[in-house]
Amino acid sequence: MFTSHNAAAAGALRHNQAMGQGQEFDVIRRLMHTWGDLATDIGDDAAVLPSRTDGLRVVSTDACVEHVHFRSAWISPDEVGHRAAAAALSDLAAMGAVAEFVLVAFVVPDAWQPRLEAVAQGIGRVVRAAGARIVGGNLSRGDTFGITLTVIGCAARPVSRAGATPGDLVVVTGQLGGPGQALAAWMQGQAPREWARTRFAQPWPRLAQGQRLAAHGVTAMLDLSDGLAADLGHLAAASGVRVVMDSAALPCGPDCAVGEALGSGEEYELVATVPPAAWPALKAAWDAEQLGPLHVIGRIEGKAPGEPPVMVTSGTDATGFDHFARPVVEMRPGKGEL
Amino acid sequence: MFTSHNAAAAGALRHNQAMGQGQEFDVIRRLMHTWGDLATDIGDDAAVLPSRTDGLRVVSTDACVEHVHFRSAWISPDEVGHRAAAAALSDLAAMGAVAEFVLVAFVVPDAWQPRLEAVAQGIGRVVRAAGARIVGGNLSRGDTFGITLTVIGCAARPVSRAGATPGDLVVVTGQLGGPGQALAAWMQGQAPREWARTRFAQPWPRLAQGQRLAAHGVTAMLDLSDGLAADLGHLAAASGVRVVMDSAALPCGPDCAVGEALGSGEEYELVATVPPAAWPALKAAWDAEQLGPLHVIGRIEGKAPGEPPVMVTSGTDATGFDHFARPVVEMRPGKGEL
User: Fold this and answer.
1) What's the total number of domains in chain A?
2) Among residues 245-284 of chain B, which lie with CB inside 8 Å of chain A?
């Protein structure tokens, strides 16, 4: 494990602790060099975080595993890191939180050792853009490359996925369908369209958007990781409500069909439920801040026995992404690739 | 990701959030059942931690990967969980911190799905004994079983490994050599002695011991994960000092040689440096509290150019454990086992 011994001195750029000898520590030293002032005071058993009096601490952990979340033939090592960091930080965005600290645990097969600095660069780019710092991590050998990122932030009023109320508007950021379309193309041995590929390989966590939505009193929020239909199912289950979507209102990406927008996982856009009275001020602030697309795609209704929790009007049937429902073998490279 | 949506309501036992459909969520529901009141309010994007005004937050992440940190033929799934939790919490112990929150990220191949609840039981036992709570985690498929635990605690005065001062006594908890001896036996196809096996399979994080040491003003502390010789090398490097150990003073376990005590990794005992004036009161409090073995094994001296950072008098030459120095193939099961 490598961690910051005094992240309390957050502002000041300090030297990392001297580490003992060994190849493991040589690798950690290279990572520290790659991250530069983004990862300071590294080298102790655990990281010390500054105490805060404002806001609540918000924390989440997220894993990115080769053959499950990506294949090396699809995206570059830099993009692997970029994507893993965005996915983890997206959970903070979904709480309306500010990102502060990141811990990065790598499992590294031999073949990945030469690519580790490129992965670290991708992680660093996203962490830096999020305004956070890397305060620690772990380095382990293993047969399969994986990154588990733990992200820590704070929020004055964390937004759960459990507060949606009948009458609320359902809004979504961004344009949907890209990651799913890219994945489908790769699985069929084809090259995805550039827009879809970039959406899969280089997502950005919607932190500023999540903070803006939280500030305007959204009642529930989550990030799109399993796909819009499935994630709204989670929101409906957690809130005890029903979601009615209008398929014509879905912000489909270029050349993306409604079914792709509904089923595309790992979008890392945000879905939130907004009391109608809060919508005009939210929209005005959103546009003034130029936070990108924000569309009303449906409304929250009371739960009706026997009715599905998510309904799509004039709709296409679609389900979301469930790691455990899809046999892992589907995601494995062919023999030639291994 | 599965996380607590309101860990702020720490005392109260609450229901976990309703989750949507899917096999992944069925697995999470089973884990929640296994953990019972140890893991409440699970189900949101990120966990919300109560704000604190006393002490600093301390955080660390640690991975446990099959074929690297253990083999299934050696220890049970319950012990895999126990050991992973102990290893992660040991980093908090090494800071003198109180353990508060744990996040558990699993990577699960098909073969491990039936064992996941036993693993969760082992984790739960150690987290419960540590007085902490599970506030979230992640569940992913993958080819190799792995657990990455993130642990969060607090400490009034976190103890780094960088404060050792010439003149300090070097003390160590517990009896050493067991995990290394067990590992060596397994690698030679033999059954380890029971004491050594238990030390490998069921270590306990020395949280009470670390808090006691911190309260008495130890100047540096770390947990034994790489082996005493290597870990004292880290302490010496971080503190800019030299460690002189007396091999006759080492608390070797039953039937353990000095070389085994020096080189045995993953002990999860604590090493600390104590100003001589603080020792009598520390020892008296330690014995009154019955915190187990605590031995003075050496002293801190000033760094001398050209001399090794760790010296063992009347000593055996030994080096510690370095994941990246030892080829991973050594730790892999034979073909018959796969």
Assistant:
1) 2
2) none
Torsion, Cα B203 B204 B207 B209, to 10 degrees, reads -80
- Looking at the structure, tell me whether residues A230 and A143 fall in a common domain: no
**Whether complex ipTM tops 0.90:** no
Cα–Cα dist B34/A152, whole Å: 26
Q: Are residues A260 and A135 in the same domain?
A: no
Residues B148, B177, single domain; the answer is: no
Task: Give contacts of B 10-29 with A, CB under 8 A.
Answer: 17-27
The CA-atom distances, in angstroms, between A102 and each of A88, A138, A191 are 9, 12, 33
**Two tokens, residue A53:** 């009096």
Kindly state whether A9 is in contact with chain B, defined as any CB-CB distance less than 8 angstroms: no
Count residue pairs from A and B with Cβ separation < 8 A.
310
Closest approach of chain B CAs to the CA of A287, in angstroms?
26
The range of the structural domain enclosing residue B245 comes to 169-313
pTM: 0.85
Q: Does the CB of B158 have a partner CB in chain A at under 8 Å?
A: yes
Per-residue pLDDT tens digits for B3-31: 543 333 333 334 566 776 677 678 777 77
B304 CB near a chain A CB, below 8 Å?
Answer: no
Q: How far apart are CA B159 and CA A5, in angstroms?
A: 9
